[in-house]
What we know:
By secondary structure, the protein is an alpha/beta fold. About 35% of the residues lie in helices and about 15% in strands. Strands 3-2-1-4-5-7-6 form a seven-stranded mixed sheet, with helices on both faces.
Amino acid sequence: xxxxxxxxxxxxxxxxxxxxxxxxxxxxxxxxxxxxxxxxxxxxxxxxxxxxxxxxxxxxxxxxxxxxxxxxxxxxxxxxxxxxxxxxxxxxxxxxxxxxxxxxxxxxxxxxxxxxxxxxxxxxxxxxxxxxxxxxxxxxxxxxxxxxxxxxxxxxxxxxxxxxxxxxxxxxxxxxxxxxxxxxxxxxxxxxxxxxxxxxxxxxxxxxxxxxxxxxxxxxxxxxxxxxxxxxxxxxxxxxxxxxxxxxxxxxxxxxxxxxxxxxxxxxxxxxxxxxxxxxxxxxxxxxxxxx
Length: 292
């Protein structure tokens, strides 16, 4: 049984880092416009967090107004949905299904024989038509802060009630371009720790060729290739302290994909990871993950 790490403070709500929502229907976006909107949204969001941290309320309000003019969260989500469409080749779960291919056939046979499908929790879900959703291997629970689809539950992962038993836990959790949206480093660490509470307990029945229970994590590549406070070595140390082992990885020019498997022989340690510089340079970004 994996020891659970106690947290004295209440998990932070992800909505703290979300922009205002307006209800104007989004127009169709070209690939270039989609990328521009997403980049602009993240830049403004980071500036708002910094302004709030500096106590500059007036600047934060101006930046919030700029976000609202762009369409707020709804416009950003529409751009993300467009970017993940099959026409754009942006569904990150396609790579996940490729990684799982060697395990899929025997597991699918079990499902066809009446075994229950694997349970998948998709955090920050935007669509019910991605590769994982189309597979009969998974029974998918989809949640998002501002659901645009009736099949996606409107819920903050950081406020989701903790499961009472393995029957309420999941075989796989997907955090695809979610962690980078959390506005501060401590909140990101809290989110990663919280995933351990929603994955079922590993057992001897989990064979080495079946990568479950596991966490699928996708980040902008710059979070691990150009950050002042995080690189892949540092990320691996953080994940291993939470009881994860790296099963798969791929880093492209834009995105970093990881499949982290819960380690049967490792308990969650209480090691702390502070915000320390691992890469110097003026051109580095300040993305960080802190385990307090």
